[in-house]
Design a protein that fits this description.
Shape of chain B: flat
Strand content of chain B: under 5%
Helix content of chain A: over 70%
Strand order of the largest sheet of chain A: 1-2
Structural class of chain A: mainly alpha
Largest sheet of chain A: 2 strands, antiparallel
Oligomer: heterodimer
Order of helices and strands of chain A: HEEHHHHHHHHHHH
Mean pLDDT of chain A: 86
Largest interface: A-B, 98 and 96 residues
Number of strands of chain A: 2
Number of strands of chain B: 0
Strand content of chain A: under 5%
Distance between the termini of chain B: 38 Å
Number of helices of chain B: 12
Shape of chain A: flat
Mean pLDDT of chain B: 85
Number of helices of chain A: 12
Distance between the termini of chain A: 37 Å
Chain lengths: 306, 294
């Protein structure tokens, strides 16, 4: 018994130099802030005097009764996920499948489609803001009015509810499709070619091969991409900050943008923290539902592989 | 028999041509935003945007690039971004490889519990922490000359960057370390070496490719990081980073689009070069680890 205890103590001492630096940094700057958020969310925090007064759930009540902006933000985050994720997954899968069957020039297309992924959100937002310009010099207005002649009027894209949201969606799709493509391509390449040959010998049709070989093999990968994109859809921020600023009347706002405005424009740190926790709980619930539904999120050892 | 084989060859070749055609057209449509950026960065700026908007550059005028490169703020931002990213990547990976070894190969009490906490932090959205992080940094105000604590300092920003990346890197590297057979370390133990010898002689060299990959992704991530930088150093002119500068160039009223896009492309070029050089390794190797089940 004593020997086991000694061994445990010895192992702890052995591990400390390896683990301690990281553990200290994570504890002070990640874990402690996480719990501190809970406390701030239940308080009124005055930034200048650094006073914290406990006020219970008032911040939460304030958020849920603040009027339309919170519900617009929730709606827009969900709409963003519902609109962009299917397009990203089908598009990524489509192009990955084409690329998997391509003999020459794979690298060229891979790099080409991946460029938006490595381009920062700030730059992507800038070019989309330019393309959605209000007058005839904006690319989309020029395309619609002067090239395709679909309408006579120049559309103020970023100043309307639905066209503003559509711009945010389009940007998300453009930025993330290449990422899904690369992940799917890697998954497709692990499928043994013998499987296809065996299926051909058995007289399987194209769709049968696609369904029983391709789809069956990459289901876990689709799930991986989906979870990443769902979590990502709660991270929409810069798009809104730089494209629409939440206008008109908060109809294009999203949760993180709301959090940012609450904290750093309105200086409502308590309410912002409460909102942050609400978002975290939302993300957690969505992730758990996805996990339950797909039951695939385990690695070989049965550990969570998130 | 021979005829059938020929037609098979022809269909295969036709399929390849068709694939190329679809992909080339798609890639072109996909690249329009980049082409527009390049064209606009070469326009002569006249306070009126060019009409019609150009997808292909019609002139090769690099004055916007010259102007951006000679801006003092660009030099400052470039310097700061290089300093922030390289120090962050270096410290974070140093700390994370050490941690990962501890979690992977030493069975110390509380190990699994702490590791679960690490995974938990990965699942909570990072921006949630920005307010308490702001307050914690400001609370470190006992250093003379820093009334606002570490807010508005390079050190503070790097501390947050490093700390928030440790859990992810540790998680990834620990999984990588566990694929290295333990029998490899036995010869070291027999020779009387300890964990540090095993770590530096076996685990570190064997995982250099994984560490390199993570460095590149980490570098890219912090090179473009906007939110944290804006909150923690936003007001300090001398500490401005490239993403903050880009956002500022995008003025409220009269945006000089030629400058905005010249600067954007200058910021983008290092990332594209690094990615293009390493793309084979990145894609074939570690990028997809954890995502592809074999």
């Amino acid at each position: 018994m004593n020997k086991i205890k000694n061994k445990k103590l010895k192992n702890l001492l052995l591990a400390l130099p390896f683990v301690l630096p990281g553990l200290l940094l994570v504890s002070i700057f990640v874990l402690y802030p996480m719990f501190f958020t809970i406390y701030i969310s239940l308080s009124e925090y005055k930034i200048v005097s650094r006073e914290i007064n406990f006020i219970g759930f008032a911040n939460y009540i304030a958020i849920f009764s603040s009027g339309s902006e919170f519900w617009y933000a929730v709606r827009n985050n969900f709409l963003y996920a519902i609109v962009t994720i299917p397009v990203i997954i089908f598009g990524g899968l489509f192009f990955a499948y084409l690329l998997d069957n391509l003999k020459h020039g794979k690298t060229f297309f891979k790099v080409g489609f991946y460029l938006p992924v490595i381009t920062s959100w700030v730059i992507v937002a800038l070019v989309f803001r330019y393309m959605f310009g209000n007058a005839n010099t904006g690319f989309f207005n020029y395309l619609l009015v002067d090239v395709l002649h679909l309408t006579d009027e120049y559309i103020p894209w970023l100043f309307r509810e639905w066209s503003g949201n559509a711009a945010i969606w389009l940007m998300g799709i453009w930025k993330n499709l290449g990422w899904a493509l690369i992940i799917f391509l890697a998954a497709l390449q692990t499928i043994s070619k013998e499987l296809y040959e065996a299926a051909s010998v058995d007289g399987a049709s194209f769709w049968q091969k696609f369904k029983f070989i391709v789809m069956a093999s990459i289901k876990p990968t689709i799930f991986f991409v989906m979870v990443n994109m769902v979590i990502g859809s709660f991270n929409v921020f810069l798009q809104v900050l730089m494209l629409t600023g939440g206008n008109p009347n908060d109809t294009t706002t999203v949760l993180q943008f709301l959090l940012y405005s609450l904290a750093f424009s309105d200086r409502e740190f308590g309410q912002a923290s409460a909102l942050g926790l609400v978002i975290a709980v939302l993300v957690l619930i969505v992730t758990i539902i996805l996990n339950k539904y797909f039951k695939l999120n385990k690695d070989n050892e049965g550990n969570d592989a998130v | 028999m021979k005829k059938k084989r020929l037609s098979y060859e022809t269909t295969r070749r036709l399929t390849q041509i068709l694939l190329w055609a679809i992909l080339i057209i798609s890639l072109f449509i996909f690249s329009v935003p980049f082409l527009i950026m390049i064209s606009a960065s070469m326009e002569e700026f006249s306070y009126v945007l060019p009409y019609p908007p150009k997808v292909f550059p019609t002139r090769f005028n690099f004055s916007a690039y010259q102007y951006v490169l000679s801006m003092p703020a660009f030099g400052t931002a470039l310097m700061n971004s290089i300093i922030n990213t390289t120090i962050t990547v270096f410290i974070s990976l140093l700390v994370s490889t050490l941690s990962a070894y501890g979690f992977a190969r030493i069975k110390f009490p509380g190990r699994d519990w702490i590791f679960r906490l690490y995974i938990f932090t990965l699942m909570v959205p990072g921006f949630l922490n920005i307010i308490p992080q702001f307050i914690v940094l400001r609370g470190i105000d006992f250093i003379p000359g820093l009334p606002n604590g570490l807010i508005g300092t390079t050190f503070g920003l790097i501390l947050i960057y490093t700390s928030t990346s440790i859990a992810g890197h540790t998680f990834f590297l620990r999984n990588y370390f566990r694929t290295i057979p333990e029998t490899l370390s036995e010869s070291v133990y027999i020779d009387g070496g300890g964990h540090f010898t095993v770590f530096s002689r076996i685990y570190l060299p064997l995982s250099l490719p994984a560490i390199a990959t993570m460095s590149i992704f980490s570098f890219q991530g912090y090179w473009e990081e906007y939110f944290t930088a804006k909150v923690l150093i936003g007001a300090n002119e001398n500490l401005i980073t490239l993403p903050l500068l880009l956002q500022r160039l995008n003025g409220e009223h009269s945006t000089r689009w030629d400058l905005v896009f010249a600067a954007s492309l200058l910021v983008l070029i290092p990332i594209i070069i690094i990615y293009t050089i390493f793309q084979k390794k990145l894609i074939a190797g570690n990028l997809t680890q954890g995502s592809v089940k074999e």
